[in-house]
Structures are given as structure tokens and as C-alpha cells.
Design brief:
It is built from seven helices and eight strands, in the order αβαβαβααβαβββαβ. By secondary structure, the protein is of the alpha+beta class. It has one domain: Endonuclease, Chain A. It has an eight-stranded mixed sheet with strand order 1-7-6-5-2-3-4-8, with helices on both faces. It is globular.
Length: 173
Amino acid sequence: MEPAPIDETRALKGVMLENRADIEREFFSAIRSAQREIWLADATFRPWPINSREAEDAMHAFLIASRANRIHLLVANDQYLAAEAARFMRLLRLFGQSLICRRPPEQLSMRFAEDCSFVIVDRARMVRRFHRDSMRGVAEFHPNEVGPWVDQFLSVWEESSAGLSGTVLGLSG
């Protein structure tokens, strides 16, 4: 199913998101529209529908569409994903080379946890929550609006360390 085209007026001014339903609608629409890359950032991902069947299906379809497709995820605290997000972890095990998780550096973790809660698709579309404690936000549909967030993500990504992995490492005795 092809994503609906975005009209020009909506693209230039974005769309205010007032509640969880708005955030989830735009999140799923963004994920389904992805052609090359998806970047996700949040302190824990608990408020996002990342572990839903719909998210799993959309991300799975995206990752099998091309070997070049990538999902990059920055998470300050991955306990929720590791312990309670079985669907997400299944994707991570299946697509460990294409679904990469990292942790922001310690010195950025507090600011990151407050300010960074967004999904960016193909450097041109974004769904962003205003604050970690709120389900209000904005959907942006223009590279000029999304660009500064892409730069912020890349900056933190470069300084981040390895995070969740779909493989279990260690020696069994």
C-alpha cells in the first residue's frame, strides 16, 4: 500500500499532534512511508507504539524491501525494550545488521532524555513529541524543518556507544 501524498500546505506548516492517537497515527504513517532510513530516538520508547503488531509489520516490510534499508535507534535506557518489547526484540534478532541500536553518551543522557523523542524518516519527515512526559507533538513534512533534528541525531549517534543487540554473546559452560 502506497502512502498517501502529502499536500503542500501540510508540508510547509506541519501538523500539531494533541494526544496519543494523533502521535500513533503519524508514527505509523511515517514508518509505512519510509523508503531508505528510519531514525528513532527516545529515552525509553515506552510511550511509543514500537512494540505493537502494526509497528512490527511496518518495520519488517521496510527492512525486507531492500538490503540497503536501515533503522537507527538511539535509546538512553533500553530496559523496557529488552524486557517488555518482544516484537521489537524479534525484529532486532532477525535484522541485526539493518536495525542498529545505540546509547547516547553519559554526558548527554539527561538532556537527551528530556528533549529527544522523535522518529525521522528519509531525512524529510518527522514525528516529534515535545517532552518525554507529554503525548503532544508535531509532525513535520519538509526537509528544512527536519534538517536540524537530523543534524542533532547524527551528532549524538557519532558519540554514542553500542546498545541492544539481537544476538547473545558469551561463553556457555
